From TrEMBL:
Keywords: ATP synthesis, CF(0), Chloroplast, Coiled coil, Hydrogen ion transport, Ion transport, Membrane, Plastid, Thylakoid, Transmembrane, Transmembrane helix, Transport. It is found in: Membrane; Plastid, Chloroplast thylakoid membrane. CDD domains: ATP-synt_Fo_b. GO terms for cellular component: chloroplast thylakoid membrane; proton-transporting ATP synthase complex. This is ATP synthase subunit b, chloroplastic. It comes from Tassadia propinqua. InterPro entries: ATP_synth_b/b'su_bac/chlpt. In plastids the F-type ATPase is also known as CF(1)CF(0). Its main location: membrane. F-type ATPases have 2 components, F(1) - the catalytic core - and F(0) - the membrane proton channel. F(1) has five subunits: alpha(3), beta(3), gamma(1), delta(1), epsilon(1). F(0) has four main subunits: a(1), b(1), b'(1) and c(10-14). The alpha and beta chains form an alternating ring which encloses part of the gamma chain. F(1) is attached to F(0) by a central stalk formed by the gamma and epsilon chains, while a peripheral stalk is formed by the delta, b and b' chains.
């Protein structure tokens, strides 16, 4: 320690015009140099270091604040997405239920429509059968009537002579004439 104080004391006693000399005591000169450099660094670097640390602190706080805001936004978006998901799931359930009921309703409508169509076809079939039966009956009647008429004409022609034939025609003309007078 004495060397350190001697170094400071020797600095105060410099000869004004004398010789210039080197202090060869490395320990005391390094210690002095270090203390001067540290003193200057602390004195001048204190503000710069403080500013650097404040800037770093502000950036870290801004980053944390931005992260918190982003986190809050992400949480809000997540909640919105969950709400939308719940809504879509409810709508999907409604569509599913409505779809099943719509399918059942369409199935019943199709069954009813098919049943009505089959009923109409059955009615058309029955009407067609009745029509064809009636037509066949009418054809048979016509043929029977024609055959009976032919048979009667054949019998009349074989039994009638000219005189009897003329009297029958005259009687029929007379009946037609009297019918005409009644209608007038």
């Amino acid at each position: 320690m004495k060397n350190v104080t001697d170094s400071f004391v020797s600095l105060g006693h410099w000869p004004s015009a004398g010789s210039f000399g080197f202090n060869t005591d490395i320990f005391s000169t390094n210690l002095i140099n270090l203390s001067v450099v540290l003193g200057v660094l602390i004195f001048f670097g204190k503000g710069v270091l403080s500013d650097l640390l404040d800037n770093r602190k502000r950036r870290i706080l801004n980053t944390i604040q931005n992260s918190e805001e982003l986190r809050g936004g992400a949480i809000e978006q997540l909640e919105k997405a969950r709400a939308r998901l719940r809504k879509v799931e409810m709508e999907a359930d409604q569509f599913r239920v409505n779809g099943y009921s719509e399918i059942e309703r369409e199935k019943l409508n199709l069954i009813n429509s098919t049943s009505k169509t089959l009923e109409q076809l059955e009615n058309y079939k029955n009407e067609t059968i009745q029509f064809e039966q009636q037509r066949a009956i009418n054809q048979v009647r016509q043929r029977v009537f024609q055959q009976a008429l032919r048979g009667a004409l054949g019998t009349l022609n074989s039994c009638l002579n000219n005189e009897l034939h003329l009297r029958t025609i005259s009687a029929n003309i007379g009946m037609l004439g009297s019918m005409k007078e009644i209608t007038d």
